[in-house]
Amino acid sequence: MLAAVACSCVRSGRKMSAPVAQLSLLSAKNSPRCATPAGVRGASQHRSPRLLTPAPWLLPSGASLRCVSQSVPRPGAASAPEDGENFGSLSMDISSRRSFRKSGPDTRELRHQEQVSRVDDDEEEVEEEEEEAVRRPQSSNTEYWYFLQCKKLIKEKKLQEALDLFSRDMLQVEKLQPEEFNYTILIGGCGRAGQLKQAFRLYNDMKKRGLEAIDATYTALFNACAQSPSKRAGLQQALKLEQELRRKNYRLSTITYHALLKTHAFTNHLQAVIHTLREMLQNGHVATPETFHYLLMGCLKDKETGFRLALQVWRQMLKSGIRPDAKNYTLLLRTARDCGIGDPALASDVLLGREWENLRETKQASNVKSESRRKDTLDIELLERQLFIEPGSHRHGEKSVSRRESTQLVPVGQRENLPLPVDSVNSSAPNLLDLFEGRKSAVVSLGAVDGAYDRLALIGGAEGFLEKMAANGLSPDLRTLTLLADTMEPGYQSLQMLLRAAKQHHVKLDAAFFNSVIRRAARAGDLEAAKGVLSVMRQRHVSVDVQTFGSLALGCERQKDALQLLQDMEGAGLRPNVHVFSALIGRATRRLDYIYLKTILQTMSEMEVWPNEVIIKQLEFASQYPPNYNQYKSRNNYLVQIDGFRGYYQEWLKFMPALDVEG
């Protein structure tokens, strides 16, 4: 076919491109259908070569000259003979081509079908991509976009939704590769929610993906250990993470060290806090008010001597040139409320003792270190020796090293430390915070420190404490006033002083504050004063709650008071819970009033308030005879009804549901 086209072009004198000419010559040579008959071949041999040469005006330029059967000789090449033996010799120029695309109706049909099939496949892929795009979130689906969404959900207390968004949408649907900040924000949320296992599960997955944790990640992990409901599990995870960081020689930042201090303060003990603080200072970090915040938190762990330890830490903080902040004052107040002072003699010697004359030699030996040390540098070694004093070391004949070291931080007194009568202590008891600040003050013994009010008096009482805060430019908040209400001496004057402080510092008081005042008065046995607080709450438009009546229940010494309390709760539209009944049972047990106890148990069953473990322990104690009581030799009016109560109590246990009492 191509040969026919070529011949037609030659006869008509039309142009023909070089590739077509070459293919036509090749096809004519190889195809048997294009073989020339003998007569025609012979006739062509007698034709003049000029018949095959186009007219000059029809000669194509360039490569189109190759369509003629006799090519123009190249410069320098031997001239070929002019006979017909060289016809088709141009096919040698394309002999190097290995494949040729044939064109025909069948071939074009196959190509058309392939193109249609390819277009259909492309359209299906486009449709699938569009459907997938519809299923995907329509926001900016990047790693940082997911970080912002998770942060927003965690702030809204929707941690589980944030975890689902990360694991399902980001990893499974979007198939994005998470970054370090995606894990860190989720670990922080798990830590604040107390989900320790989930926090470390995310951390392990982060390491499997080859991501490097940063300070914020480790800070979030240590916070998760501190906030864990299981303090033992939190401590174990924190110790493992510490060992891992030491193996890596990873240098923690100050913020991460503070998180580690918080973990040990919550889950361990004060010595672990001191050990971590020493490492922090050795690595070049500087102690701040927040550092002492965690030291004071560690003192809270020791309920027996925590208040004395807190005072020593406070004194060292002042000597280091660090001004306490509001959190430090709040924690000092908490130790005064919740912790004891330990051995009064040791506490008096440690907190009020004067520096000894022979201490000068020790100071002279360490002058070089003292001069090179900055004023605001924390001497952690000295603080550790002062805090952990053995309780009998101050009674030795010679002044022991522990005693001398324990008094290094106390300003030099003006006279000998002579014990004063106990009754004169309350009238002239110094404010220890003034003494720690280096102010002139007479040195006295501590005397008897029995309760929270006595410990508060050592630091100036409520008024002196607030004055110290004002001197440092600090104002009390609601938490501070609530702690004072739960610590100071109960009474109308104390309440009025706190109300004035709240008005002065623009603090809006809530039900929790007034509940603390009521609880303090009720425990002191002044039920009328506790009820008087209710009128103050009504004047300030503060609504009562169940905790308000639970605080009042602590003062219900008699049965009629308890019944009146339950009636008042019903009038207020409140239902007594197990804590209200526990308070009433505790007062009745203290008085050994078994008629009172029986009435409370009957009311509990009628109101379907089921007892908890605390109530069961209270009732078990109330149903036992006193150890030294012999009902056949003596008579006790309160114990006359014990046998009847014991029988009723056993029957009461049988029909009360969901009880699992052993023994």
UniProtKB/TrEMBL annotation:
What are the GO BP annotations of this UniProt entry? Answer: tRNA 3'-end processing
Which cellular components does GO assign to this protein?
A: mitochondrial matrix
Which InterPro entries does UniProt cross-reference here?
Answer: PPR_rpt, TPR-like_helical_dom_sf
Q: Name one Pfam family in it.
A: PPR_2
Family annotation (Gene3D superfamilies): Tetratricopeptide repeat domain (1.25.40.10)
**Bias regions of kind Basic and acidic residues — which residues?**
103-119
| Region entry Disordered, spans | 70-135
Please list the residue ranges that the record marks as compositionally biased, kind Acidic residues: 120-132
PPR repeats mapped onto the chain: 179-213, 288-324, 510-544
Q: Which Gene Ontology MF annotations are present?
A: tRNA binding
Q: Please report the name of this protein according to its UniProt entry.
A: Pentatricopeptide repeat domain 1
Q: What is the species of this protein?
A: Pleuronectes platessa
